[in-house]
């Protein structure tokens, strides 16, 4: 009975595999739609925290299908008081039917505001209402008066607007980057199209499968999930393709039959790809333990995506490639009998020889350089203010900042206290207690129905300030005296998110390291090598975070790092970074069984150096494309992964890991024993006699 690899690469069966899988993929893409979301206000909030409980309780209100917008009016160099009657007429005409919007001037007369409610059944409805209000205000305000819209409704609408079309733009940029780098890598007008098309189809299938899995499992996801999923599938899928095609090219130099060459290439690549995909899959699934529902959705979606990427790389791609002759590589067609990359003096072999002269010196030098890069970690500030969460500041954010110059800083973003208390005396006492908290400018009851009452409290300080944080903490101490009473609003949510992300890091960091370590132990059947490899990945992460912080503050002008960046960057860098170590070390183990550890590592570096470097540069560039999306969190995530993958590819995998193996020799695989005693070995010529090269001996 034929093995799966023989079926995939067989002369006749390859056609069947290629056609059937593509037809199935097209059927999925054509007849199965993406999973549908049922968004909740608590999707992006940490489960079980005070602000989340407040939002969940607030959803019981009938008025929950409305939101608040604040119209801000300013007059340059003049007192706005004389314009109040005209502005009140404007608000009476533009406010939704049944809504009263009183125009209120600031104490110094430099600005005026009007608070009104707008329908918010869905994000689309809110966005439409905000867009219409902005247009109406701009058209009807008196000459010399400038209008702007802020408040929760406007911020929500602006967030939806910046994501509109962003995923398509990200997909286009990602595909273009992959196409360009494949073209440069293969220097062929034809070959690059095959992996690009295969991975592109895989990306579409991954999106459909992942979102439907999330829908069935009732796990929420947000607008950025599909975008990050596409980046991951394109990056990892293309990496796997590069590894397979590189091995296939080498086997074509030894075997006349392309089917036989692909069979050998697939068998030797499958173990590394399977190990890599399994490690990434397990690593991403650790996000399912996050306190944030949408982060759980991201982890599950990306875990599904990596399985789809590996399946297309190991099943569809070899079946499609084997249908073409050697001419697909034109003009660099691999000729039968030509030297394999391991038999040439490639740049990577020369790097290996250089490291081999003084491996301990390279270990010390590399670690010292990485330590210097890591110094920025000690200066990282976590917690990005709301005003800095967009790459391009929308009107709602700039208007909020201007409003704070004339009114109490919390006016545009009130703190919301939600209670299930129903006793009128108790509610009156609660309102009084809230107003007595230091830092609270004013408080008013904003809604009451279905046994739920809400109060809006205006803080004297900006919601993102340390002073506002202290006010919220004191406020929570007061409200905790009343049963089922919670504090929410952006300031309160920021406090809870910071605490929740710290808890996530404490739980997930050691868990993913332990799982990756176990996966490597199972793959290599050794202990010391996996420990060293995991350690190098952690060092890479710390160095990437330190260097990225310098870039954030000195180049991009960010004042802080989003609290979610370290966790997501750690997951992706550890899961994906260990890939390249797997590609290198599995090849080194294969060669070590014939040549010994030292010569095996040098040969593996020569064999995989080019393809892993190409894969690393491609993956780094693909994740850098996250900067196309409008949120600073995603831009920061893309930068950290970009820096980390380049450090891992160009320094750690090229120098540090080989230096460790060359220094330790056979002990590198402890407790595994490597038996490499083969008669007739010549370091410069490979195996003598009829067995031919080491690779040929293994072929047999």
Describe this structure in words.
The protein has 22 helices and 10 strands. It has helices spanning 4-9, 13-31, 50-58, 84-94, 123-140, 152-163, 166-186, 193-216, 223-252, 258-285, 293-321, 347-357, 359-374, 395-406, 424-435, 466-479, 490-524, 528-554, 565-595, 597-624, 632-664, 694-699; strands at 66-75, 103-105, 111-119, 145-150, 415-419, 440-449, 452-459, 485-488, 681-682, 686-687. The strands form 3 sheets. Strands 2-3-1-4 form a 4-stranded antiparallel β-sheet. Strand 9 (681-682) and strand 10 (686-687) form a beta hairpin. Helix 7 runs parallel beside helix 9 (223-252), helix 9 (223-252) runs antiparallel to helix 10 (258-285) and helix 9 packs antiparallel against helix 20 (597-624). The longest helix has 35 residues, at 490-524. The relative contact order is 0.11.
């Amino acid at each position: 009975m034929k093995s799966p690899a023989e079926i995939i690469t067989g002369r006749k069966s390859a056609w069947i595999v290629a056609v059937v899988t593509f037809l199935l993929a097209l059927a999925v893409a054509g007849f199965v739609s993406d999973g549908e979301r049922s968004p909740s206000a608590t999707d992006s909030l940490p489960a079980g925290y005070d602000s989340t409980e407040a939002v969940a309780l607030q959803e019981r209100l009938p008025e929950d299908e409305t939101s608040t917008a604040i119209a801000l009016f300013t007059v340059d160099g003049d007192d706005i008081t004389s314009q109040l009657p005209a502005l009140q007429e404007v608000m009476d005409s533009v406010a939704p039917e049944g809504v009263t919007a009183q125009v209120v001037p600031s104490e110094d007369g430099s600005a005026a505001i009007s608070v009104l409610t707008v329908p918010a059944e869905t994000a689309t409805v809110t966005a439409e209402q905000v867009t219409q209000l902005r247009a109406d205000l701009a058209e009807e305000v008196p000459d010399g008066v400038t209008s702007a819209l802020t408040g929760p409704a406007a911020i929500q609408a602006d967030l939806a607007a910046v994501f509109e079309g962003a995923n398509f733009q990200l997909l286009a940029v990602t595909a273009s980057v992959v196409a360009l780098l494949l073209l440069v890598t293969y220097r062929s007008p034809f070959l690059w199209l095959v992996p690009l098309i295969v991975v592109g189809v895989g990306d579409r299938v991954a999106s459909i499968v992942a979102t439907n899995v999330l829908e069935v499992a009732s796990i929420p996801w947000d607008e950025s999930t599909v975008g990050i999923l596409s980046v991951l599938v394109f990056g990892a899928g293309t990496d796997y393709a590069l590894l397979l095609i590189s091995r296939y090219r080498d086997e074509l130099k030894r075997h006349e039959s392309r089917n036989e060459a692909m069979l050998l290439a697939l068998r030797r690549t499958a173990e590394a790809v399977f190990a890599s995909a399994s490690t990434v899959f397990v690593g991403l699934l650790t996000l399912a333990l996050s306190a944030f529902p949408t982060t759980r959705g991201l982890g599950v979606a990306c875990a599904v995506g990596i399985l789809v990427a590996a399946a297309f790389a190991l099943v569809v791609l070899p079946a499609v490639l084997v249908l073409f002759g050697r001419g697909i590589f034109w003009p660099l067609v691999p000729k039968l009998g030509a030297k394999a990359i391991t038999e040439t003096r490639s740049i990577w072999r020369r790097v290996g020889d250089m490291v081999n002269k003084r491996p301990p010196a390279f270990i010390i030098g590399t670690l010292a350089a990485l330590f210097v890069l890591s110094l920025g970690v000690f200066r990282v500030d976590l917690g990005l203010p709301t005003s800095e969460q967009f790459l391009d500041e929308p009107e709602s954010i700039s208007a909020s900042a201007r409003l704070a110059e004339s009114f109490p800083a919390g006016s545009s973003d009130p703190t919301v206290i939600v209670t299930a208390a129903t006793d009128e005396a108790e509610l009156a006492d609660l309102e009084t207690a809230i107003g007595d908290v230091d830092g609270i400018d004013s408080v008013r009851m904003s809604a009451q129905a279905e046994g739920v009452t809400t109060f809006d409290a205006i803080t004297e300080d900006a919601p993102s300030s340390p002073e506002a944080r202290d006010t919220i903490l004191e406020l929570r101490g007061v409200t905790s005296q009343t049963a089922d009473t919670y504090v929410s609003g952006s300031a309160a949510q920021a406090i809870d998110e910071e605490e929740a992300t710290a808890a996530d890091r404490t739980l997930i960091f050691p868990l993913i390291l332990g799982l990756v370590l176990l996966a490597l132990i199972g793959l290599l059947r050794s202990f010391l090598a996996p420990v060293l490899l995991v350690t190098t990945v952690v060092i890479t992460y710390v160095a990437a975070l330190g260097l990225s912080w310098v870039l954030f503050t000195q180049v991009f002008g960010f004042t802080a790092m989003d609290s979610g960046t370290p966790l997501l960057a750690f997951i992706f860098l550890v899961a994906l970074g260990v890939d390249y170590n797997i590609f290198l070390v599995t090849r080194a183990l294969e060669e070590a069984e014939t040549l010994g550890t030292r010569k095996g590592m040098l040969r593996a570096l020569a064999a995989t150096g080019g393809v892993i470097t190409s894969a690393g540069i491609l993956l780094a560039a693909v994740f850098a494309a996250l900067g196309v999306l409008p949120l600073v969190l995603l831009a920061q995530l893309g930068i950290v992964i970009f820096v980390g993958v380049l450090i891992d590819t160009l320094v750690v995998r090229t120098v540090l890991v080989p230096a460790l193996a060359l220094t330790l020799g056979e002990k590198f695989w402890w407790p595994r024993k490597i038996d490499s005693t083969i008669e007739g070995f010549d370091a410069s010529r490979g195996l003598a006699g009829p067995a031919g090269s080491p690779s040929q001996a293994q072929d047999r």
